[in-house]
Amino acid sequence: MLINSVVLLLSDALPIFILISLLWVHLSFNRIWLPVSLIVGLGLTVLLVGKLNSLGNWLEGTGVELILFSIQVINYFLALYLTYQFIHKQTDKKLLIFSASIMLILTIANKGTNFVVYFSGYFGELGALQSMLVGLFLGLGICLSLMILLYFVLTWLDTKITSLISIICIPIYSIGQLTNSLPLLVQVDLINGSETIWDTQNILSDQSELGQLFNVLFGYQATPSFNQFVLYISTLLILLLMMGRANLATFKQGRIP
Amino acid sequence: MTLRVFVLLVLSIVALADTASAAVSEYSIQLKDHLFYPSTIKIPAGKKVKLVIQNLDDTPEEFDSFSLNREKVLFPKQTSFIYIGPLKPGVYDFFGEYNPNTARGKVVVLKQTKGATHVN
């Protein structure tokens, strides 16, 4: 149960910690939004877990999958907005903070439900609580270490090379999360499945530590489907078009006295 | 331009929507004492099938499979379903994420039709 708790926490909490790191690089000027988002996110998670069973029966049993996929769609557009504003160097900081907070709250609710279901379902079992708590702290320690490491790497890249790298990491992260959630629609038969376009399990398995980290960072999949590939490329294309537009707007703005 | 690409993307997803819901075979699985019964499901290649999973335990479980690319919370004393396939012939492992040492099973896809494709 100890190892299982660590593994579960790593798979569910790592995306949250990575997102905090990506956002904190650009929004560290405000110290309030992060603790507030964490508290609201945890509250929403508990609320969602309480309703998850009844939500699951919505729309002929497709409710949960639809909600989780919709969260990723919303987060993608929030990431696009943040990217545009960071490139365009917008000064409406309140809206930036608000968008980042919503993104984090939704991510906590999305990823946190699995662990809360596990924790609430098993903590009453004999001897389980101690193992689960130790696993929780071990997992949190690993996630925190990775979060801090990523933060320092990104801030170093910001100062030594360009801030564009840390900016683009935010939408790339959300594109990966959105693409990963597409099979949710396939498993409840809302869209048809498609064939796998490559298999790199032998090179980098989804189950390996590095495979899981890459999956969180940019949506790495060892066996992606054609649907996922199309979605990834399309959302990436939208991002590139939007970045081009943001650059153009900044350039024009710079030329106007 | 960005809007046009987005509209195209939405249309593509809509086009993927399963409008022709042909008859799909159902396979029942039960979860009892953190074990899947039956632990081996045999399905035909190239066909979409529906797995109906009944959790008879008092604790939740999560049906998980890397090879099938599926993930679904199974609430205690509840019945859930997951669609899989069409799949290529082969063996696809699945497990309960909360009890991965005991709750294990596999989907064996048997060759039956030509032109089957591996799907997730």
Automatic annotation (TrEMBL), chain A:
Transmembrane regions listed in the UniProt entry: 6-25, 32-50, 62-83, 95-120, 132-154, 161-179, 229-248
Protein keywords: Membrane, Transmembrane, Transmembrane helix
Ranges in coiled-coil conformation: none
Superkingdom assignment: Bacteria
Protein name (database record): High-affinity iron transporter
Classification lineage: Bacteria, Pseudomonadati, Pseudomonadota, Gammaproteobacteria, Alteromonadales
UniProtKB/TrEMBL annotation, chain B:
Domain named EfeO-type cupredoxin-like: residues: 7-109
SUPFAM superfamilies attached to this UniProt entry: Cupredoxins
Short name of any one Pfam family annotated for the protein: Cupredoxin_1
The organism's place on the tree of life at top rank: Bacteria
Record has Signal as a keyword: yes
Keyword check for Phosphoprotein: no
Protein name: Cupredoxin domain-containing protein
Upper classification of the organism: Bacteria, Pseudomonadati, Pseudomonadota, Gammaproteobacteria, Alteromonadales
